[in-house]
Amino acid sequence: MNLAKIRNLSVVAHVDHGKSTLSDRILELTGAVDARDMREQYLDSMDIERERGITIKAQNVRVGWKGHTIHLIDTPGHVDFGYEVSRSLAACEGVVLLVDAAQGIEAQTLANAYQALENDLEIVAALNKIDLPAADPERYAAEIEKVLGVPASQILRISAKTGSGVPELLDAICERIPPPSGDPSAPLQALIFDSYYDQYRGVVSAVRVVNGILRSGDRVRFMQAGRVHDVEEIGVRTPTNEPVGELGPGEVGYLIAGIKDVGEARSGETVTSAGAPAKAALEGYRDPKPMVFCGLYPIDGDEFSNLREALEKLRLNDASVTYEPETSGALGFGFRCGFLGLLHMEIVRERLEREFNLSLIATAPSVEYLAHLTDGTTVVVHSPSEMPEPQKLESIEEPYLQATILTPSEYTGTLMDLCQSRRGEMVRMEYISPERLELVYRIPLAEVVMDFFDALKSRTKGYASLDYEQSGTDQADLVKIDILLNGVPVDAFSAIVHRSEASAYGRKMTERLRELIPRQMFDVPIQAAIGGRVIARETVKAKRKDVLAKCYGGDITRKRKLLEKQKEGKKRMKNIGRVEVPQEAFIQALRLEE
Amino acid sequence: MAEETPFGVYVHIPFCASRCDYCAFATWTDKAHLVGGYVEACRAAVGRFVTEGRPATSVFFGGGTPSLIGADLLCSILELIPTQPGAEVTVECNPETVDTAKLAAYRAAGVNRLSFGVQSMLPHVLASLGRRHDPESVLKAAAAAGEAGFAGAFNVDLIIGGKAETVSDWARTVEAVLALDPPPVHVSAYSLTVEAGTPLARDRSRHPDPDDQADKYLLADDLLGAAGLRWYEISNWAAPGSECGHNQLYWAGGEYRGIGCAAHSHAVNPDTGVSRRWWNVRTPERYAALVASGGDGEACGESLDASQRRAERLLLALRTSNGVPESSLPGWREDPVLARLVEPASPGRVSLTREGRLLANEVALRLVDPGF
Ligand SMILES: Nc1nc2c(ncn2[C@@H]2O[C@H](COP(=O)(O)OP(=O)(O)OP(=O)(O)O)[C@@H](O)[C@H]2O)c(=O)[nH]1
Ligand code: SF4
Ligand SMILES: [Mg+2]
């Protein structure tokens, strides 16, 4: 294929600015999808994407436009899935940067634009949704020029909804984005930038050929994994999978090589020829590391092995989830799972419940701490139960984020308060336009994981946006709080919190449990403690009366059945510190936590 | 000669003048026009299922408000029920529905025991329970009972834990009841229970506090005991010899026949030891219609095998001062909970302590079938 006629690009933008809708119009205009088969956000194929109206996984598609072959990748906008964007950029020479013409630049717009610039990619900027009455393209074109340095005159105006301006955008893509370069006669180097598991075909990988030619039937070597595979099929997505005989430099397509585990076809992997391998691998990228952890437990203890199986299967499609078995006195057997963020956690849980028919209970999210011990060693802590005893602790480090907030300037005060109360430190504050401001804070991840995003949205009526990236670790005055029932810790409620928030957390949990734990035959103390020191205490008073007042002819059957039921219920109670607790009470307490 | 196996007859009268807020009984305030036909149905049922059988050792007219219907109607049912000599015959009455003449008519027809629904002696407490009568009518009813020959033969029902009731209110109620002239020989004090679907259930602010009820229960036990009424079942106290024989039959797992809508029956097959319990349809219309077409009015029933019967009998016996065999609570002395809740009664038996009576459910959960 003529390299000069190939254009490889990703569509990037803040959440909801219209990437998938633009992709729809492009599929239509180029004739890739028949009008009759068209549906909104065509490329969002997972149920959960369609229901929530968001893109979770990047999707690539090949279309033709005026003699050019365009490989377009629709990317997710949500910050949890930022790694999907960075992977996609590695397969491109340019991006289409969409900006909602009624909202202007948002936090992820900046993050995406900076990433494109770092990768030396051509940016084709377009203001989208110009059909909206509230659209103000003039104003936001000026903003883009000021903040990103794209001349206002070069910014296209489109409506992904009506299709207006989309042909011009395709023309601009062909004119401005440089064609790929590459040597067809050099040894094969192809980059895997995504993989998913298909139950019939096994692993299907998205590849971008950089040098050489990838042919069907080739014997190839995966350079990082060090494994050799036979290429079963290669093809291009148009958007249906269409097998082809070969893919040359600059071309994007898919590769099937009889691989059963996505872990063996990781993103960033270089595929080369087994017979005449390239000397060096392409620059890959690191897998994203989970940032947020929680315990997932089946509500029905018998479903533990089903949960394990479900996690194994889910991981085939989403290698960013991690899981390790974990045992809880309160919740039984489950897994400690790692996620890229809160949305990712929510989505994984929902997929497990829905696609595998499980009912799960999740413990409160936690982050990864480094505990430095007095004996000089360091332990990685993913859950409160892994936290060493306070006496053995020298210090704790917690992960930080650099958070970028874009907000109308009238909310600056309230957002600064919010960030400060969450232990954030201001890095920068800058006007991006007379009315809007960029606030950059360094802030503990744990604070953001709590409910920072909701607080941010509610304090700014939804107008502020947030993006963040990891920003190392710092020491912090953190403590582990245990919640004790009759003197015995209930692991599911332990938490690692900043010392200043410890007593608030302790009070909240003890009060909540006092309401949820049924009265017993003796007073049950519920305590929150740090090490051995109690910081909050409630008591479930001993039960004094449970007898039914009447038991005459008409009451006997009812009474007997009630007792039979209670006897059954007693067997299912968890026994913690001699206290009988229905599992429902734990589930309730954790639900309230969400 | 072996003692006659007790056999009770219960007659349900499903009519009331107004409905109390907490009441979930099968009773109606708007079906007075059905009374005649309903009484006929009961008479027919008695004629078919009781008269031919064995004579009753106890008869109990419950409700509803049996005293609401004419004494002649009530007695027309009673006269068809064959009774053993000395049988106990009780009628439940609401104080405001009786006078000396009505009670004398009962007496003449063979009624020898009354049970008055008093609930409280304080107007504000009665109001908070959604009851209509005033305490004055209780004094009159007691006097009328005395005049009609029921001195030493009536019970008073009380309710513990109406929302407006303080502990001293409760003490005043118990004292006022004990001071009735003539005094009751039997008092039932029931902790107010929230029944699903009642106006009380919908009004959370009036739900009773179990701790408050526990305090009042113990207070009642003190006051009634001091007046010579002995505790003999969770909610019942009586002068020695004045216990309610009909209710004791229920608690002993005995046999009884229910006449009327929503009434329960229990019959034991002496050969197999299996028993059957069944209950009649809920409304008076349906009951009358079924009886008219030759049926017995049964809605549903269950069979109890020997072990279920034992379990049930233990459950019931546990609630009484007679208690249960020690072997049904093995290791009770060592169990820190049980050791507080039960104590030795007669040889080989244990019964509930005062604390245990309030926590009888907790004890019942620990009962095991000793196999006899
Ligand atoms: N009025 C109007 N609405 C649009 C336009 N483009 C997209 N939308 C709407 O904006 C919402 C978001 O569109 P998507 O295409 O799903 O946005 P996205 O950028 O792919 O979102 P994520 O994948 O979640 O980041 C949808 O309700 C679209 O219908 C447009 O040009 N005009
Ligand atoms: S008098 Fe008795 S049966 Fe009638 S409504 Fe009141 S509580 Fe119910
Ligand atoms: Mg999308």
What topology emerges from the helices and strands here?
The complex is a heterodimer of chains A (594) and B (372).
Chain A: E1 6-13, H1 19-29, H2 47-52, E2 59-65, E3 68-74, H3 82-89, E4 94-100, H4 107-118, E5 122-128, H5 137-148, E6 156-157, H6 166-176, E7 189-198, E8 202-211, E9 214-215, E10 219-222, E11 227-230, E12 233-237, E13 241-244, E14 246-247, E15 252-256, E16 270-273, E17 292-298, H7 304-317, E18 322-328, E19 332-339, H8 342-355, E20 360-362, E21 369-373, E22 378-381, E23 393-408, H9 412-421, E24 425-431, E25 436-444, H10 445-459, E26 465-475, E27 478-485, E28 488-489, E29 495-498, H11 502-516, E30 524-530, E31 533-540, H12 556-572, E32 574-576, E33 579-581, H13 583-593
Parallel strand pairs in A: 1-3, 1-4, 4-5, 5-6
Antiparallel strand pairs in A: 2-3, 7-8, 7-16, 8-15, 9-14, 10-11, 10-16, 12-13, 12-15, 17-19, 17-20, 18-19, 21-22, 21-23, 23-25, 23-26, 24-25, 27-28, 27-29, 27-30, 30-31, 32-33
Helix pairs in contact in A: 7-8, 11-13
Chain B: E1 7-13, H1 35-49, E2 56-63, H2 71-78, E3 83-93, H3 100-109, E4 113-119, H4 123-128, H5 135-147, E5 154-160, H6 167-178, E6 186-191, H7 199-202, H8 210-226, E7 230-233, E8 236-238, H9 245-251, E9 255-259, E10 264-268, E11 275-280, H10 284-292, E12 298-304, H11 306-318, E13 324-325, H12 338-341, E14 342-344, E15 349-352, H13 354-358, H14 360-364
Parallel strand pairs in B: 1-2, 1-9, 2-3, 3-4, 4-5, 5-6
Antiparallel strand pairs in B: 6-8, 7-8, 10-11, 11-12, 13-15, 14-15
Helix pairs in contact in B: 1-2, 1-10, 2-3, 3-5, 6-8
Bound molecules: guanosine-5'-triphosphate, iron/sulfur cluster and magnesium ion (MG).
Magnesium ion is lined by residues 19-20, 44, 55 of chain A.
